[in-house]
Amino acid sequence: MLRKVSLGLFLVLAACGSARVIQRNQSGGVIELNGDRGKAMEQAHQEMAAHCGPNNYQIVQEGEEVVGTETVVREDTASDTRTSRRGRRSSTDTTTVATQSTRDATAWRVHYQCGGAVGGPPPGPPGYDPNQAPPPPPAGGYDPNQPPPPPGY
Question: In whole angstroms, what is the distance from residue 93 CA to residue 81 CA?
Fold first, then answer.
């Protein structure tokens, strides 16, 4: 009965998901997802909206990241007992084999940025429109956007 209750509790907990803020600054942050990714992502969206404002954030990177290492040590012991034919003497041999393995520990993380769109053209002077054509060269034919003529021209 206890085994059935434990299995049921494990299945209920496995169906849950959670989001944990790892790092946060003025422009965005990093959130780690645990358990059910769909449920955890719902909580992550709530965290991002609380930090940046509703619909004022953009996910810029999402995926599994190495967050450290995990080392597992396993030790197997085997015993072999032998008894003489007459049953008077017995001996026991014990063998222990230790194995150690290390692997990368990973976690699913979401990186986000506040303010909606990411990137874009750098800001220009007031009234600057990057989609507007450059002004025509000034009278006299000199254009500061063009390289100077070769020497002796």
Answer: 6
| Three-state SS letters, 43-96 | HHHHHHHHHHCCCCEEEEEEEEEEEEEEEEEEEEEEEEEEECCCCCCEEEEEEE
Which long-range contacts does 124-130 make (Cβ < 8 Å, 24+ apart)?
A: none
Three-class SS state of 152: coil
Residue pair 37/108 in contact (Cβ under 8 Å)? The answer is: yes
The C-alpha atoms of residue 122 and residue 144 are separated, in whole angstroms, by 21
**Residue 64, pLDDT above cutoff 60:** yes
pTM reported for the whole predicted model: 0.53
φ, ψ (nearest 5 deg) of residue 6:
-60, -45
In this predicted model, what pLDDT tens digit does every residue of 93-109 receive, in sequence order?
Answer: 888 889 999 999 999 99
Task: Tell me how far apart the alpha carbons of residues 52 and 41 are, in angstroms, rounded to a whole number.
Answer: 16
* Phi/psi of residue 37, nearest 5 degrees: -65, -35
In sequence order, the β-bridge partners of residue 20 are 32
